[in-house]
Design a protein that fits this description.
- The protein contains twelve helices and 16 strands.
- By secondary structure, it is an alpha/beta fold.
- The strands form five sheets. Strands 6-3-7-16-8 form a five-stranded mixed sheet. It has a five-stranded mixed sheet with strand order 12-11-13-10-14, with helices on both faces.
- Helix 2 (78-89) crosses helix 9 (251-265).
- The longest helix has 15 residues, at 251-265.
């Protein structure tokens, strides 16, 4: 949905948990997982409501460096840390994170189970038709996790499409699944896994030949697991990025958030947060939600 990178242990969502304590604005801030609150009427002025109640509920994952749930239940990560800082500027001191799988993030937002999503939910046409994205916070690349030596020489999406025997692990509802579907990679070649650890286990057990995930996610996993290696960025995967996502009815909040986000990007703290989590603040310069929302999928 993020401090030492241990990425993609996505805590799946029967355990929809909320983060109750105040998120500090700095990248070392955290919150505690607590039960989710009541649904909010989609017609409510979200900015006024959040200021009045003192908190905003946010759908997150557990996918470092985008989001991270620590062993003690605290939550941090690049996207939540930026969101916390921007919300602070809006007069909202508490952000409650609700852990959910990627495929449930937009449906849960639309069902008012949370008020925003900040989880590395990459922009693409189908998602941008359903939510209002803020301007980008990060721009990301994709890679394959492969057995050491990359014995099947999997480097591109075209390689996967050209060899029907290849099995590629992906997260259901993830951006990478969308890339394969757009490229017409058959479902029979796609191995669905629950989280980052499951993807690496699928490689180790020879249930998959590669694990398709953001480059930084795979590198974070590789810090504690030497059983696989990470390819260079996939050249035929589209440029992508993410920001916070809001309900289409929450236009006033979306506008106010973008104003404060733009101002926050000009502060040293924005770069500090991105540097901490391994992202390049310069890569975000010039990137827009309109551009990234043109990505097919």
């Amino acid at each position: 949905m993020i401090a030492n990178l241990t990425r993609r242990n996505v805590l799946q969502g029967a355990g929809v948990a909320a983060l109750g304590a105040v998120f500090a604005v700095v990248a070392t801030g955290c919150a505690t997982v607590t039960p989710a609150g009541e649904a909010v009427d989609g017609g409510t002025d979200l900015l006024a409501l959040a200021k009045k109640q003192g908190y905003l509920r946010v759908g997150i994952a557990n996918e470092p460096p985008y989001t991270q749930v620590n062993s003690d239940g605290t939550v941090t990560g690049c996207e939540p840390d930026v969101l916390k800082a921007v919300c602070k500027r809006l007069g909202i001191d508490d952000v409650q994170g609700i852990i959910t799988p990627y495929e449930s993030m937009i449906p849960g937002l639309q069902a008012n189970r949370w008020d925003a999503v900040a989880a590395g939910l990459f922009m693409k046409q189908s998602r941008c038709a359903e939510v209002l994205y803020s301007e980008p916070v990060i721009v990301s690349t994709e890679s394959f996790g492969v057995p050491v030596g990359n014995p099947k020489n999997i480097l591109t999406v075209a390689d996967v499409l050209a060899d029907s025997s290849l099995r590629i692990a992906v997260l259901p509802g993830g951006f990478e699944e969308g890339i394969l579907n757009t490229a017409k990679v058959p479902a029979s070649q796609q191995i669905k896994v629950n989280d980052g650890r499951s993807g690496i286990e699928a490689l180790a057990a020879d249930r998959a030949d590669a694990f398709f995930l953001p480059t930084l996610s795979l590198r974070a996993l590789a810090e504690t697991d030497t059983s696989f290696e990470v390819t260079e960025q996939v050249p035929d995967a589209p440029r992508t990025g993410s920001g916070a996502a809001f309900r289409t009815t929450d236009t006033a909040f979306h506008t106010a958030y973008n104003v404060e986000l733009e101002a926050f990007k000009k502060t040293p703290e924005f770069k500090e947060i991105l540097d901490l989590w391994g992202f390049d603040a310069a890569a975000v310069e010039g990137a827009t939600a309109d551009e990234l929302c043109q990505t097919e999928g």
